Amino acid sequence: MPQNSLLMSAITACRTKLNAFIRGRTAVREDADDILQEVTYKLMQVEQPVENVAAWLFRAARNEMTDRARKKRELPLADFFGGSEENDFPEDELAETLFGVPQTPEDEYLKTLLWEELEEALAELPDAQREVFEKTELLGYSYNELAEESGSSVQTLLSRKHKAVLFLRTRLRNLYDEITG
């Protein structure tokens, strides 16, 4: 365990500066504390030796802040349906229909219809776009988890998902218009 004690000593030595670095770049104190805890935990999980612990921690903190900023900018699928007022897609209604508990036989039928249409639309997407959409929207993957699993960059995954959402927006808009028209 001498490696762990050396690691803890290195973390303790740069913790104050690292904390100030993170707090200077985040608006919410709790977020800064979370980031500090997350990068410390990640360092403990690294299997190969880290030569410069301070540099590694600062780089990991910067990466974590960037990831969190990207996540905050991400819009859920429903947000892509917004537009001008006369063209608004009732995203809350869609989410409630897809993921809520049906109250009537009509609700059950509509839920089944929407899921079938979504599955058909997803099947029309290129495999890479479908995979990133399904894993981030339906299975709860983070972009970092998916990037690690697939070997693709986060930026590539974001691009693929954007293309998938644009296609699905059009496809589901047509269905919605047919149902309400």
Features:
75% helix; 181 residues; mainly alpha
List the helices and strands and how they pair.
Elements: H1 2-23, H2 29-45, H3 53-73, H4 91-99, H5 105-124, H6 127-138, H7 143-150, H8 154-180
The 3D shape can be described as elongated
Q: Give a short account of the largest sheet.
A: none
Structural class: mainly alpha
Helix content: over 70%
Order of helices and strands: HHHHHHHH
How would you describe this protein?
Helix 1 runs antiparallel to helix 2, helix 2 packs across helix 3 and helix 5 (105-124) packs across helix 8. The chain is mainly α and 181 residues long. The protein has eight helices and no strands.
Write a brief caption for the model.
The protein is mostly helical. It is built from eight helices and no strands. The N and C termini lie far apart (69 Å).
